[in-house]
Amino acid sequence: MKRRDFLKMTSALPVGLSMAALANRAYAASPVYSNVSVTKPAVMPQVINIFMYGGASELAGNLTNIADINANSQNDYTANNAFRATILQAATDNDPANRSRFNDGQITANAFWKEAGGTHMEDMLAAGDMTVYRTLFKKKSPTRSHRESIFMSHKGTIDIENSPGIGSRLALMLLQNKSSYQGVTLGDGSTITDIESLTLPFVSFEGESQTFALDPDNAIPLPLRGLTMDEDFNNPYTRNERYPYTDSKELISTLLDTRQGQLGSYSSKFTAAWDAFENGNILEGRMKNLADLLQHFQLDENGNRIKDEFGNDVVVPSSAQKLGVTYPNTNFARQLEAAVTLAIHNPETLYMAVGTPGLGGWDDHNNGIDRYPNRMNDVMEAIKAAMAHIKAAQGSVQTIKGNTRVDTGNIVINVFGDFGRLVNLNGSGGWDHANNQNLYTFGGASVRPTKEKAALGQIIGTTHREGSSKTNNQYTVPDDEKLQWEPMSVASSIYAYFGATKSELLTADATYNPDGDRPFEDNLPG
């Protein structure tokens, strides 16, 4: 290796890791799934994990320290047409229809940033739909590198190399304890007969995701592996008029269908292949049904758009619109609507990975002044619509299997990112990498443990500013170590929703984190 390449590689190492330690990390031990016991959940959870790639500033959800921050900041938040004096003032007008950016104070009643989604957060907090944990703080491995931080969050462990993601760990936990999940109730009142027979249990709406990185030591059956689809439910099983194959895939599929008929009498000799054919046909039909739940153009038998009497395309409203819920017209909102629609109408979908497409990344070193508040408002406005959708669907929609959706309180939405950012406003009008961040978590009253269920509608954890005054090194830290959590606690909480009684074991590794990290509920008072 050239010396220059070696130095570049070593300079990128996380804080506190030597080359010897890195070598050890390449041989990460898989969790011992048999060590994790399961208590059968009352209803099977459905988790939507939204990841804000790049690391979003905490300020949208935490302006409690803004006066002290501004007094010590390298650059004044109120000067040179930055955020003006209103960022230091209490908001008196919380009308979401009145969004002139600087017409009013920006600090809401619970110290959210009004124009950065604060009004929507206040509404969801008051409705008991949201919990904000203000102290998601990396102490065990305080790296500020994107790669290590993203992998740590998606895999739920510090030992990130060759280790499985959260989705894969969850799938293997379910598989290890499959007998414990027989008879567990789903959101439509039906029950699980076999974990491996679930339809679309693990889905990624963000392409290939580290949350579904496979376990090198434990095989995951194909039905339990993460499946990628987009906001139109375009996926590997779709072969209908909306997404027709026009290449060799269609020819191959036709040949396989023909061959399947020819081999009918020999199906018992080729059970796995035969099941794959059958599952593909079933899933194709169900995916077409799901696609029909999204807003789309009405087509005739030839695939042409039907026109109304005025010559306009006839639009079929989405399932959300039929419930009186309209999502914002953004790429992120459309992806979130697809994820929520899938969760509502297919209670067998247990875990989904979602990004924030169309809003840009959150690595706001530059020009956060102009971009950050609007993007955070877009995120929270979409989630507010999602929560309205989830609540309106209970008892009023049919699932793809024809059952009534009787419980949507088992759907949980989590929102967090790589890490936090400095609170000092730098010379480019942005914030550089730091540690502390917020976890925004929504819904799930039917599956949250007792103490965490009680936390819905609350803000947990407080912070204070530290750092050298008037330098580009201002950051917040938790006030109380008992009310701070590592990013791995997000994964631990997810496993706990599914009944894991020692969920911290799935976040542990022998070298860097032997005890693992306990779920949020375990640190809450009461």
* Domain tally: 1
Q: Under CATH, the topology is which?
A: Alkaline Phosphatase, subunit A
Query: Beta-strand level of the residues, as a percent range?
Result: 5-15%
Structural category? alpha/beta
Radius of gyration: 24 Å
Could you give the count of β-strands? 12
Query: Quick one: overall form?
Result: globular
The CATH class: Alpha Beta
Question: Distance N terminus to C terminus?
Answer: 56 Å
Q: What is the correct CATH architecture?
A: 3-Layer(aba) Sandwich
Low-confidence stretches: 1-27, 237-253, 265-278
* Alpha plus pi helix count: 15
Tell me about the biggest sheet?
Answer: 8 strands, mixed
What are the SSEs and their pairings?
Layout: H1 3-11, H2 19-25, E1 46-52, H3 66-72, H4 118-126, E2 130-136, H5 146-155, H6 166-176, H7 178-181, E3 202-204, E4 227-228, H8 248-262, H9 271-291, E5 296-297, E6 315-316, H10 319-322, H11 331-345, E7 351-354, H12 368-393, E8 411-417, E9 437-443, H13 450-455, E10 459-460, E11 463-467, E12 474-478, H14 488-497, H15 520-523
Parallel strand pairs: 1-7, 1-8, 2-10, 3-4, 3-7
Antiparallel strand pairs: 2-9, 5-6, 8-9, 11-12
Helix pairs in contact: 4-12, 11-12
